[in-house]
Amino acid sequence: MLEQLVTSFIASSGFGIIFNAPKQAIVKCGFVGMLGWMIYFFMVENTFDAVFASFVASFFIAIVSYYFARRYKTPVIIFTVGGMIPLVPGGLAYNAMRHFVLNDYNVAIQLAAKVLFIAGAIAMGIIFSEVFNQIVRNIQLKIRKKHV
Amino acid sequence: MNNIRKRNYTIDEICILAGQIMLESGAETYRVEDTMNRIAKSFGAEYVESYVTPTAIVFSIDGDEITNTKMKRIEKRGTDLNKITVVNSLSREISEGKWTLQEAYQKLIEVQRAPFVYSYWLQILAATIVSGCFVIMFRGSWVDFIPGMITGGFGYLCFLIIDRIVRVRFFSEFITSAIIGICALLLVYNGFGMEVDKIIIGSVMPLVPGLVITNAIRDLISGHLVSGITKGAEALLTAMAIGSGIAIIIGLF
Q1: In this complex, is the C-beta atom of A81 within 8 Å of any C-beta atom belonging to chain B?
Q2: Does B10 contact chain A (CB < 8 Å)?
Q3: Which keywords belong to this entry (chain B) (predicted)?
Q4: Does residue B151 surpass a pLDDT of 90?
């Protein structure tokens, strides 16, 4: 568990450097990535499906990134990218590819379908959090109007 | 006084320059449009329309004078999150009325000419460490940590070199992943590391088009269908290039 915490933090901050993120944002990138990966890892360890785990993790990554973006007045994308990359089903896609090459199409197509679903789950996570943020913002605006 | 100093920069030139920098650094479409409109409005333009796709900007200002429409073709696209942040905060300062037209243009030119925040060597070092970490995250053993770092770092170095020579993104990704495959196989064959699969997956991660994928999704949500789909196609092509590079190596050996 501890090695997962440390490696995911370092990996996400490393992506910040590869993508030329501003220096102040590197540690925050690492934090977002670590949080997302820990949610995903914890859920998969506790026999949740990888598709659902990806959805929940990307949802929380987007929420936290949005919070950071508003707090530090920087574009959201800086924080989302670093967090999202570990969730990309690279391992599965690789295995699917390998089975395609070995002419084992039955397994390959099963794996490819799984890859597709996980990618869709990540997208849905981002979409849900976007909608969630809009609702929260609208409620906040309404409350403020009432007070005034 | 030289010519450049005397010139009066118009609002649309500044907006298009800002948009161009953001788009070339990999910003989301809606953010580019929003920034351009905001800058134009804070300089006093009333009716502003902008249409941005990953390859072109169309920008139009409507006012008391003649309607002014300009188009800018975007040739190269990279990833530079720092420039996006700088332009974003610059547009904020413009809205607060901190800069005049001339000053804003000078600032934008400075941003456009600025080099990357991190040197190439630091980026390669980051790729090296990232690859090693991903081997562990995908439940590889610590035996494969160092081999993962070596192949990942070497792969990224090759990617930067090939990308500079060939200038066709997909081709350099294809060749790089093939090189990574060969390196991983050679290392394991010579007794360094145990699982070829884990090493390859970890080392390929720095090439994954993460920014393009998230941008594609965010563009699609915000209703920029053309940009979203084209970026999705870009991400798919990259994934195919990486996948087929690896596939060829596995198929051969």
Answers
A1: yes
A2: no
A3: Cell membrane, Membrane, Transmembrane, Transmembrane helix
A4: yes
The pLDDT value given to residue B7: 59
* Cβ atoms B69, B60 nearer than 8 A: yes
Residue spans per domain, chain B: 3-113, 120-252
Query: How many contacts (CB atoms, under 8 Å) link A and B?
Result: 148
Task: Pick B214's closest partner by Cβ from A4, A80, A94.
Answer: A80
Provide, as residue numbers in chain B, all residues whose Cβ is less than 8 Å from the Cβ of A78: 81, 84-85
Which pLDDT band, with edges at 50, 70 and 90, does B239 fall under?
Answer: confident
Q: Are A39 and A58 in contact (CB under 8 A)?
A: no
Question: Which chain A residue's Cα is nearest to B250?
Answer: A98
Q: Which residues of A12-48 are buried (b: 16+ CB within 10 A; e: fewer)?
A: bbbbbbbbbbbeebbebbbbbbbbbbbbbbebeeeee
* Residue whose token pair is 């798919």: B236
Contacts of B57 (CB under 8 A, 6+ apart): B16, B19, B20, B23, B32, B36, B50, B51, B71, B72, B74
Residue ranges of chain A with per-residue pLDDT less than 70: none
**Nearest Cα residue to B25 out of B119, B116, B120:** B116
What does pTM read for this prediction?
0.86
Pairwise CA distance, residues B141 & B195, whole Å: 9
Interval B155-206: pLDDT, tens: 999 999 998 898 888 899 999 999 999 999 999 989 888 888 889 989 998 8
